[in-house]
Design a protein that fits this description.
This protein folds into 4 domains: about 50 residues, no CATH class; about 90 residues, no CATH class; about 55 residues; about 120 residues, Spore Coat Polysaccharide Biosynthesis Protein SpsA, Chain A. Helix 1 packs antiparallel against helix 2, helix 2 packs across helix 3 and helix 9 packs across helix 10. Helix content is about 45%, strand content about 10%. The relative contact order is 0.11. Helix 11 links the parallel strand 5 and strand 6. It contains 15 helices and 9 strands. The N terminus and C terminus are likely disordered.
Amino acid sequence: MATENEPTVRRSPPDTVVGGFTPALKQEGRLLLQMGIGKPSIARAMQHAQAHGTTVEAELLASGEIDETIYFEALAETLGLDFMPSIDPDRVQDIEGLDSQIARPEILRVHHASRPPVTVIVPSLNRLSGLAALLQRTPMLRPSLAVSTPSAVRDATWRAGSQRRVSAVTRALFETAPLHSARITFWGKQGFYAGIVLCAMIVAAALVPLISLLMLHIVLTLFYLANFLVRFYALGCALLQDGGQEQQQSDASEPLPVYSVLVALYKEESVVAQLVQALNRLDWPRSQLDIKLICEADDTATIAALKALPLGHEYEIVLVPVHQPRTKPKALSYALPGVRGTYARSMTPKTGHIPDNCARPMPPSPRRCQRSSACRRR
């Protein structure tokens, strides 16, 4: 069953699959049918996967027709492995490369005090037969393996490396480029030149007050004019881009790109429902969206308001550990390791309005992407 916010992205199928599905999609459909999933659901997911360049599994999970926990528990039963619906982050070691499991949750090592560690895997449907054959050849691997959901692996990874990650975010700029960091208000030469200018202004005001006031007026007017020209130039560039932008058809031989949307929230419990409604109107396949709702860990009201909403598979609530400064750039930087999109942009929850160029996020050209501050390619 398609969700009510399922976008209508039309693509011409490649020549090799005119009138049918690719062998990979058919194989996925057969495996899902063996797991007991209904034929109508599989057929719709196959059609969406062919149109969007994704997998049947991804479309089925994104549609909301099946629960993620139930689905991966069924995969674990098929493989004959234990299923872990949740993972204790205290049993996950914060080792090098751990952050890779935030964006691509596939494998995680879970340690226990009284027994050997267990390797938690997130199997995919297209690799299920190979994994089953491996377990059949080497059955001694079964006790050391378990299956979990992508959400559980991501959550454990976020929590296991939270303190290291937030410390790195707040210290990185100061340690790599201290002169660009806000920790230093004035560095040596800036303080010296500022003192000279201040002394010169005081002397000039005392000796020639009228001329000093006139010069000050001229300087401030030039600053205001420069600020206006910058805004006018930005407006002109935006108008030129909007005027020349047309709905482009993606190459049917390539998958649609994943778009990541980052929204930093703090004490916004009164607008989260309106925000989610606006994000649900994004005109893009839900399987190709990655929406991060970033909250401070102690902002319990906003977190509770988000958890009370029926969030789709594309949403993820990211909890930022309590750490100064409490700024939007810090929150966005903390969430960046979890971004899985080819393109990413941040949005504000203040208005709950999604601009037209966001509601239909067509892939920008390289030239446009380089000139736009709203679009950042990973």
